[in-house]
Design a protein that fits this description.
Layout lengths: L2 H6 L3 E5 L4 H13 L5 E6 L7 H9 L5 H6 L7 E5 L11 H10 L2 E4 L10 H19 L7 E5 L10 E2 L10 H10 L2 H12 L5 H16 L5 E6 L1 E3 L16 H9 L5 E3 L8 E3 H18 L5 E5 L9 H14 L12 E3 L2 H25 L6 H19 L4 E2 L2 H9 L2 H6 L9 H16 L7 H33 L1 H28 L1
Parallel strand pairs: 1-2, 1-4, 2-3, 4-5, 5-7, 6-13, 7-11, 8-10, 9-12
Helix pairs in contact: 2-11, 6-7, 6-9, 12-17, 13-14, 18-19
GO molecular function: alcohol-forming long-chain fatty acyl-CoA reductase activity; alcohol-forming very long-chain fatty acyl-CoA reductase activity
InterPro entries: FAR (IPR026055), FAR_C (IPR033640), FAR_NAD-bd (IPR013120), NAD(P)-bd_dom_sf (IPR036291)
Function: Catalyzes the reduction of fatty acyl-CoA to fatty alcohols.
């Protein structure tokens, strides 16, 4: 039996961010491989009128947990939902719940975070820094705690080209940032934010770096490890390929391209797309939890969970594979024919944004107004372009992450553990993974029925014909106007026609002689 799976048997585990993408997959893997674990505590906030238990049932009703219900039929009884709000300084946990968490918890997986790139600094600090500080304080009061695993991001130090498995200091101490958020008003915070984040692209990467500093400074004598995943994508193998339930990262780009909204992206085709499957991140995280608890390293170890240095995939290759998959498995009710232009030319990108994005959106909204419906396409395009602009930093750069600790951990695993908790990204076939990713977005995120693929292909064919017809008509109109206004254009046209006539005459003459 797997040593890692056996380790989690009988354990009481606290997971923050369990309702998020990574948290769900982590919880699923724990139940599937260690069904005899004692309990998983999840910090949950009621949402949309649902009780805590209703949110748990909603999570378990997902296709993700189908296999879990076979090996652990009483899975619902083993999930203890605890009311908490990480936006509150005291986390809003009741005294009774707090006492239970402090007295029973063996392992903490801190996955909760805001991943919004454009989040206000105050909110990002609260979730990514202050909440981490409060959880560390809780952990220091847990007598049975064996390991505290903090999920950060490989991009916490994206202002560096080469990133080692160390915690890099921030210019301003996290405590000072936390304290200042208490009394500064929003206007002043907005003004100082660019100066604070410096050469980092957004508040997300900046506050994740601050969170790591908090872990380093306030971890005390706790057994702590930090996992830094890169761009987390759909599942590779477990519990089945292609599962995804959010629009972050590549998923949003896939939807926008498949539906025809996104036509151009200012990207570097040979930049490394450092995507890592979510099940790979989970397998490494669970292995790190086991190693940290059992071997008790003398210092906080950091593990990079990245793909670029071991099995790189490039944005250009990924884009072409996504488009190739659309030809086989198109999305339903696409707005336009899926097409993507990856270019590093700013002028070209601006031209495409104006022509390929705005013109059809304005025309479509005009049509909606005529039919008495509310226009929405221009607003949607606004949001899409804002998201794309925030991603441009990451699709135009490549980073080098050292993976010494990750490789060391892999060498410590038995063959059975390496099989059950596989995080060796060198085995990943990118073409197969991307195809499953697109298929997963269609099935699990957009909830589209595969029975509709033939109809979607016909719709795609019509869109392609309209696209060609529109481009041809546009070219002919533009050329006709140019001919009417420019003598040079008429001379060029005359030269082309004359050249073609002479060229055809040259080949016709030899054939006439043979006769």
């Amino acid at each position: 039996m797997s040593s890692i799976a056996a380790f989690y048997g009988g354990k009481s585990i606290l997971i923050t961010g369990a309702t998020g993408f990574l948290g769900k997959v982590l919880m699923e893997k724990l139940f599937r491989t260690s069904p005899d674990l004692k309990v998983i505590y999840i910090l949950v906030r009621p949402k949309a009128g649902q009780t805590l238990q209703q949110r748990v049932i909603q999570i378990l009703n997902s296709k993700l947990f189908e296999k879990v219900k076979e090996v652990c039929p009483n899975v619902q009884e083993k999930i203890r939902a605890v009311y908490a709000d990480l936006n509150q300084n005291d986390l809003a946990i009741s005294k009774g719940d707090m006492q239970e968490l402090l007295s029973c918890t063996n392992i903490v997986f801190h996955c909760a975070a805001t991943v919004r790139f454009d989040d206000h600094l105050r909110h990002a600090v609260q979730l990514n820094v202050t909440a981490t500080q409060k959880l560390l304080l809780m952990a220091s009061q847990m007598p049975k705690l064996e390991a505290f695993i903090h999920i950060s991001t490989a991009f916490s130090n994206c202002n560096l080209k080469h990133i080692d498995e160390v915690i890099y200091p921030c210019p301003v101490e996290p405590k000072k940032i936390i304290d200042s958020m208490e009394w500064l008003d929003d206007a002043i915070i907005d003004e100082i934010t660019p100066k604070l984040i410096g050469d980092r692209p957004n508040t997300y990467t900046y506050t994740k770096a601050l969170g790591e500093m908090v872990v380093h400074q306030e971890g005390g004598n706790l057994n702590i490890a930090i996992v830094r995943p890169s761009i987390v994508g759909a599942t590779w193998q477990e519990p089945f390929p292609g599962w995804v339930d959010n629009v972050n990262g590549p998923s949003g780009l896939i939807i926008a391209t498949g539906k025809g909204f996104l036509r151009a992206l200012r990207a570097t085709p040979m930049a490394v797309a450092d995507v890592i499957p979510v099940d790979t991140v989970v397998n490494l995280t669970l292995a790190v939890g086991w190693y940290t608890a059992v071997h008790r390293p003398k210092s906080t170890l950091i593990y990079h969970c990245t793909s670029g240095n071991l099995n790189p995939c490039y944005w250009g290759k990924m884009g072409f594979q996504v488009l190739a998959t659309f030809e086989k498995i198109p999305f339903e009710r696409a707005f336009r024919r899926p097409y993507a232009d990856l270019t590093t030319n700013t002028i070209t990108t601006q031209y495409w944004n104006a022509v390929s994005h705005w013109a059809p959106a304005i025309i479509y909204d005009f049509y909606l107004r005529l039919t008495g419906r509310k226009p929405r396409m221009t607003k949607l395009m606004n949001r899409l372009l804002r998201t794309v602009s925030m991603l441009e930093y990451f699709v135009n750069r490549s980073w080098e992450w050292s993976t010494s600790n990750t490789e060391m951990l892999m060498s410590k695993l038995s063959p059975e553990d390496q099989r059950v908790f596989n995080f060796d990204v060198r085995q990943l076939n990118w073409l197969e993974y991307i195809e499953n990713y697109v298929l997963g977005v269609k099935k699990y995120l957009l909830k589209e029925d595969m029975a509709g693929v033939p109809e979607a292909k016909q719709h795609l064919k019509r869109l392609r014909n309209i696209h060609y017809l529109f481009n041809t008509a546009l070219f002919l109109i533009a050329w006709r106007l140019l001919m009417a206004r420019s003598q040079m254009a008429r001379n060029v046209w005359f030269f082309i026609v004359s050249f073609c006539y002479k060229f055809l005459s040259y080949f016709r003459a030899p054939s006439t002689l043979k006769v």
